Structures are given as C-alpha cells and as structure tokens.
Amino acid sequence: MSNVRIRGIYTTALTQRLREEFRVVQASPPIRRRFDPEFAADEYDASVETTDDRQGAGVVGDPETVARVADDLASLGVDTFRWPDPTPRGAVFDAAVSDTLGGGAVVDLGDREGYLSFGKVDRRIDEGDRVRVQVHEPVAPWADHRPVLGTQLQAFGGVASLSTGIDKVVASGDDATRTELARTTEMLPTEVPDDWGVRWEYAADEAGMDAMDDALGRAVERAEVIDAGLADAPDSPSEGSRTDLPRRLVAPEETTWLWFGRESRFALDAERREVTTTMPGHHRVKAAHESASAAVDFVEDLWADMGADGDGADGDSADGDAAEEFPTGAALRQFGPAAGDRLEIRHGKPDGRCFSLGRGEVTECAPDEGKVTLRREMSGRGTYDALGTPRERGDVAVTKFREGRWWYPTLYRSDEGESKGTYVNVCTPVELFPEVARYVDLHVDVVKFPDGGVERVDDDELDAAVEAGEIAPPLAEKARSVASSVERALK
Question: Per the confidence metrics, is the pTM higher than 0.90?
Fold first, then answer.
C-alpha cells in the first residue's frame, strides 16, 4: 500500500476518501484527532497539497502513486479537471533565458516558463543565455506566476531530502535537535552519494530510526536517478545547437494538478461529513477567502456543541441537495462581493490555463439569490466574439452572474444604449468569491444578435477538447444540454 501525505483545506475529506486504498502518513494533529488509526511518520510516495489559491490540489511524487491518486480524485465530480505538469517537481532542464525581470530571469522550458532568481545563480545571466535548472516549486497551470527554478539539484522528500547545495547534515529545530539528527545520520546504514548532502525535514522529528533510514534510502534513490539522467547529458547547457533547447534531461517525479469546481467541493463536503461536523458548503466557503476558514470553524464548533452530528443541524441525515443547502446569502453578505466592489472575471480553460477578462463594478447584488451584476467599460478596438459587431470606445458590458449556474450572459451596449448583442457563456458552475467570479469555460456558447437572431457557436471546439482528453464526455454532454436550453430560451 503506497504512502500518501495530505495537506491543506481539503485534508480531512481527502484522508477519508483515500485511506482505504492508500496509507496516510505524516498526519497533522487535527487529522489524528478525527480518525482512529495511528498515522505513521514514514516517508510518502506521493504528497497531495492544496494550491495557494485553494482552488484545487497538486499531487507530486512517485509516478505510479501520483497516477493512482489523480485517477481517484478526478472522479470526485463532473467539474473536476486534471492536468499532468510538463514541468514536474525535480525535473532538470537545459534551457535558455527568454527574458529578465527585476529580481530574476524567465526561462523557456518548452510547454511552460519558469522563474530563476538571480540569487540562485553564481554568474550574471541575460536574455539568450543557456542555463541548467531544476524545478523546485511547481505551479498550477491556472496560477498567475511561474514555477520556481534553481541551479542546485535536490531530491525531495517529506522526511529526508538530499541537495547538492549542502555538504553536511541540515535540519530544522534548535542546535540540540540538529546535533542529534547529525549523529543519527552517521548511525544509519544508508550511504549518501558523493556531492549530495542530507536535509532532514520537519517530519523527521517524529520518525523512528527505521523510518529515517527508509526515508534516506528513498531520497538516495531519487538522487541516483538524477545522477544517471545527467550522466549522458552534455557537461554544459551551452554545448550543442540552440535549436536543441529546451531539453528535459531527467524527471524523477511526476506532478499532476486537479482543479475542483463547485460540485466537486460539495462532493468533498460529503466525504468530510462522514468524519466530523461539516456545514453545507464547507469547502466552497473556505476556498473563497483565507479569513473564511476561521468563520467556518466557528460555525462547525458551535454546531457540534449544540448537539449536531456530521449529517445535519438536527442530527438527522442530510438527504437534500448540498448545493441547495449551501448558505449562499450568508456567504456573500459576510465575505462579498457587494454592490460597489470591483470584481474580476477569472476565465478558466479546459487545458488548465486561466485568463482575466478584466474587472468591473458590482452594480447590483442579491445575496439571497446568489446574483451579481457587473458593469465593465470596454476599450475601442476589434469586434465582439461571434457577434461580429464593432467594439468601440464608450461601449459597456453588463454581465449577470448567479452562483452555481452553468452559464452566464453578457449584454453589450453602445454609450448611447444601443444593443450590440448578447453573449452567453456555457461553463462549469459559477462561484462568486469576494474578489473574483470563477469557472471553467466549456467552449460551446450561444449568441443573440442585435436583430434578435440566435446562434449556437463553437461546438467544434468542444468536440476537439473531448478528443484531446481535456473535457470528459459526461461534462461535454452537460455543456451541450445547457447550450440547447439556453438556445431555446433566447429564441
């Protein structure tokens, strides 16, 4: 049974979901309190961590275990998306600098770009220079920043890591702890390869001798994979033709990203409810804003003190639709958005990318109905997609969102109030967070022209996304069904 470590706001739900097929290790104190098993401090085969923006999770580690975990989580809900990362943690590239910023360089890794801080390079680098880099911190494809790169090689782990940047034993904690771990390292039978130093992570504090040696052995194996992968590589990234760059030389681990949509978060609520008191929309609220976590914890503690179990406030099983039970009004009133706020539209794509469609002013907000109206002033160039009408300075776009709805309309008008058409975007259920409206575009859309004509567009793009494996067939069928309903309603 493979070992899995889980961190972040989805930890309880994912522990409940994965613990039958995987051995959960390095559990946090709250997880230990909520589950009966004794969790070992052993090294993980794969680590599952919530992304910084709380919208999904990254799975990193042994390729086989990563694939199995990702397969399981991809089936959470119809609006769960999965993307393998072409720049996984630990991967080593020979690449070229494509740009320089104030504190570092942008490095072209092929399918993605990475960021290399000048402080991690022992020489001056400029645009066009060739570098050998390793991915130290992978980043979700929808994030607005790049994976973090380094020039010192690392073999990552949760108990023990190795690094070419150190020539001794490094550990967290006070001097006594570091001294003890250094002595323990000398006693372990596993030998560390030349040019690599040991870094003991926080989890080493609770690991026994056998677990520490096993963790060190796993780190050594990853280091040996890296050494073997570089053995046949050119001595320097500057050797060979520029057209050969970028080259991925070795990747000892895999990284896969999962984006959880609104329905996926409700599915995670159900998993968590099997373990502990869980309010409807627990993960939806926590994903909205960091400050929401404390509010959710307070409500659930109060709920538990009032005698509720994990199923409902009255102790009975919650058989209703979780989406209908979600306290939309309370969430929007407490955390926003509200009338007068500025709201950004984050337009996700099925291939993992995410774009901003700009910010607008919230002109109307009906929290109890989960409705928000957004007004944006448009720039004056080009035409509106699929509508073909000119885009001119002074035009206004009025977008109407409703929490949980699989579509939203945008009405375009001139500065004189003349209609330039309506564009209805079909997407995964809209989530209204304090500063952004989020969803993933499902390609197929419906437009209504100024003369009243209605047309469904981009079915071919949806078909192509299904063929490419970016959209699962059940989700595609849902998108087509929604588009058909919208088309009929507009005619």
Answer: yes
Within 317-379, residue ranges assigned H as helices are 322-325, 328-335
pLDDT given at position 38: 84
Tokens standing for residue 278: 């869980």
Helices (H), strands (E): how many in the chain?
12, 25
249, 93 in Cβ contact below 8 A?
Answer: yes
Residue % of the chain over a pLDDT of 90: 80
- Residue 424 CB-half CA count within 13 A: 23
For the record, the structure tokens of 300 come out as 């659930």
Do 56 and 76 meet the contact criterion of CB atoms below 8 Å apart? no
Q: Supply the CATH number for residue 119's domain.
A: 2.40.50.140
Domain that holds residue 110: 92-252
Cβ contacts of 226 within 8 Å, gap of 6 or more: 90, 92, 153, 155, 250, 252
Distance (Å) of CA 450 to CA 49, 397, 418? 47, 14, 9
CATH code, domain with 378: 2.40.380.10
100 and 246: one domain?
yes
Give the separation between CA 349 and CA 454, rounded to whole angstroms: 24
**pLDDT tens-digit map of 143-191:** 999 999 999 999 999 999 999 988 778 877 677 777 888 888 889 999 9
Cβ-based neighbours of 202, under 8 Å, separated by 6 or more: 172
The count of other CB atoms within 10 Å of the CB of residue 483 is 24
Residues 367 and 445 in one domain: yes
Contact present, 339 and 362 (Cβ < 8 Å): yes
Same domain, 105 and 246: yes
What angle is formed at CA 472 by the lines to CA 471 and CA 475, rounded to 5 degrees? Answer: 90
432 and 365 fall within a common domain? yes
- What's the burial of 367, exposed, middle or buried (CB within 10 Å: 0-12/13-18/19+)? buried
Residue 487 to residue 38: CA distance in whole angstroms? 55
Q: Mean pLDDT of all residues in the chain?
A: 92
- The Cα–Cα gap between 141 and 259 comes to 10
197-200 β-sheet, strand order: 154-155, 160-163, 197-200, 170-171
Q: 439 with 291, same domain?
A: no
Domain count, the chain: 4
Closest to 97 in 3D by CA, of 312, 246, 233, 304: 246
Phi, psi torsion values for 404, nearest 5 degrees: 85, -5
CA distance 252 to 238: 23
